[in-house]
Specification:
This is Pectate lyase superfamily protein domain-containing protein. With 157 residues, the chain is an alpha/beta fold. It is built from five helices and ten strands.
């Protein structure tokens, strides 16, 4: 029992140390502003950081254009989405992708926020039910493990 408690204590201290030492790069702005450039700048800085880091989108409502975040990175990155991010229809219309995380070792996504792809606007122009020649837009390469925040708190609509 004593060794079990000791291992548990060490694990908790390691998790706390990771969070406390992580450098935080915040990507936000005024309400309903486009944060695409801020997110890409924060990700680039976090990706180049020599120690574990965090990209934070704080609480609030924001717009986001097509965003591709590609590794490899120098250390693990935690992407924390606390706000509500909506697709910017002008910059994403006609594209096959919106938000992409790829080739990032040690990547974590959490925060309780919402990725809103603004599907209602896209479906108005959708001809799939007539032509049957539409591409499927799958969520690809997503692995979920070691979750500290229940996935129910992170929404993708």
């Amino acid at each position: 029992m004593g060794s079990y408690l000791g291992i548990y204590t060490i694990l908790v201290l390691c998790l706390l140390g990771y969070s406390a030492n992580a450098e935080v790069f915040t990507a936000g702005g005024p309400p309903n502003s486009d944060i695409t450039a801020a997110v890409l700048k924060a990700f680039t800085s976090a990706c180049q950081a020599p120690a574990p880091s965090q990209v934070l989108i704080p609480k609030g409502d924001f717009k986001l254009g097509e965003t591709v975040m590609t590794g490899p990175c120098k250390s693990p990155i935690e992407f924390t989405l606390q706000g509500n991010v909506k697709a910017d229809g002008g910059s994403t219309q006609g594209k096959d992708r919106w938000v992409v995380f790829e080739k990032i070792n040690g990547f974590k996504l959490n925060g309780g926020g919402t990725f809103d792809g603004e599907g209602n606007a896209a479906w108005k122009a959708n001809n799939c039910h007539k032509t049957f020649e539409c591409k499927k837009l799958p969520i690809v390469g997503v692995s979920v493990f070691n979750i500290l925040t229940p996935m129910a708190l992170l929404k993708m609509i």
